[in-house]
Write a structure and sequence with these properties.
The protein has about 375 residues and is an alpha+beta fold. The chain has two domains: about 230 residues, 3-Layer(aba) Sandwich (Rossmann fold), CATH 3.40.50.300; about 120 residues, Beta Barrel (OB fold (Dihydrolipoamide Acetyltransferase, E2P)). About 20% of the residues lie in helices and about 35% in strands. The strands form five sheets. Strands 8-9-10-5-11-12 form a six-stranded mixed β-sheet, sandwiched between helices. Helix 4 packs parallel to helix 5.
């Protein structure tokens, strides 16, 4: 807005048109990747986009194609079809191919792959091809300072703990300032006491470097902790993609629910958009009458009450009808207790988790209800 005139005159305003910046391409974009080995489709039409500073976790069970996808992006494997783009420029298709060392992509693996005959400083400097000796040394020292390993700069990998080796591997991967970091189960070799802290340190450093990160893991907890976005993979395909909260609370199917936690399953048949169970009716909109469905819910969404007078707790609109169960087993897991019930209505086992310590004796009768707003209905 420009004002013309002085304080004693009426102001005339002229609005200048805003210049819109063209949208920036994704840091990494893979389009319709396919790869097969011995006639088996290992990667099946996988597409992903990752922006600078974003962490995406490729999450799935062993053998689902995660690591193969990573190796294709790195240039270690060749796809049968599909394209890889970095900052809007083609890196690889089935005809054109930029060599792996020129893709500006960093790699971290679960075994760290440090050179045992090189010092910590030389390991970190290994990928630095540009700059004077002084500039390379300054970069090495800055990264080792950041990961709190300057005291080991002249040491060797065998003198370091597993967590320290992991941090050296991270510093080495980041030294050339890669635009993209590919990480294949990088924390699986660390014990639980170290893992959380090192994951957080790694994530902070990667964010500060504005690096796009693709992390492969089979651990849902790790993906939930680190990712801005989760791509859930199964049988070579991405079956669901979104923010961790959305993938967890709006699963694509029964297998997606089960991958993140234990589940309970009730089987029923739809009649008038309702599914009748021992826990009362569940809404099943969109399913034709006669459709067999699985009603899936997690153990933490089961509510418990004691059988005080033989009638059990009164049903509530949000929890439906109470069903009677007998305690089969109870275990304390550290921050919660897991209780298994043998249900009266069909003899099935049902799991419930309770915060803190709750260890009812075997044979104890209790009444169970299920939170309706935490249930998922899928076709059987």
């Amino acid at each position: 807005m420009i004002f013309i005139g002085n304080a004693s005159e009426a102001h005339l305003s002229v609005t200048l048109p805003q210049t819109k910046r063209p949208p920036q391409p994704p840091r990494l974009e893979i389009k319709n990747l396919k790869c097969s080995f011995d006639g088996r489709q290992v990667v099946d039409d996988v597409s992903l986009t990752i922006s600078a500073g974003q962490v995406t976790c490729l999450l799935g069970p062993s053998g689902c194609g995660k690591s193969t996808t990573l190796r294709i992006i790195a240039g270690v494997e060749m796809q049968d079809s599909g394209e890889i783009w970095v900052d809007g420029k083609l890196v690889c298709d089935t005809i054109f191919r930029v060599p792996p060392e020129r893709r500006e992509i960093g790699l971290m693996f679960q075994d760290f792959a440090l050179f045992p005959h090189l010092s910590v400083a030389d390991n970190v400097a290994f990928g630095l091809r540009k700059g004077t000796r002084a500039e390379k040394r300054a970069r090495v020292e800055a990264l080792l300072e950041r990961v709190d390993l300057m005291r080991h700069i002249d040491g060797y990998p065998h003198q370091l703990s597993g967590g320290e080796q992991q941090r050296v591997a991270l510093a080495r991967a980041l030294a050339p300032r890669p635009r993209i970091m590919l990480m294949d189960e990088p924390f699986s070799g660390l014990d639980n006491r170290l893992r959380d802290g090192i994951r957080d340190e790694t994530l902070s450093l990667l964010k500060d470097e504005d690096t796009a990160v693709l992390l492969v893991t089979h651990e849902p907890e790790e993906a939930m902790r680190m990712a801005d976005e989760i791509a859930l993979m199964r049988d070579g395909q991405i079956v669901q993609r979104g923010a961790p909260y959305n993938v967890y609370t709006r699963p694509a199917d029964r297998a997606a629910v089960a991958f993140f936690s234990d589940i309970n399953v009730l089987q029923s048949e739809v009649n008038g958009a309702l599914a009748q169970t021992a826990f009362g009716q569940f809404l099943a909109p969109g399913f034709p009458d006669g459709t067999k469905v699985d009603i899936v819910f997690r153990p933490q969404h089961v509510k418990l009450d004691f059988d005080r007078n033989g009638s059990g707790p009164l049903p509530t609109p949000s929890d439906g009808v109470a069903a009677r169960g007998v305690v089969e087993r109870a275990r304390f897991l550290g921050h919660e207790s897991l209780v298994e019930f043998r249900m009266d209505h069909d003899g099935s086992l049902l799991k419930a988790t309770v915060p803190n310590v709750f260890l009812p004796e075997k044979g104890r009768v209790m009444w169970l209800t299920v939170r309706r707003n935490r249930c998922f209905v899928f076709p059987t």
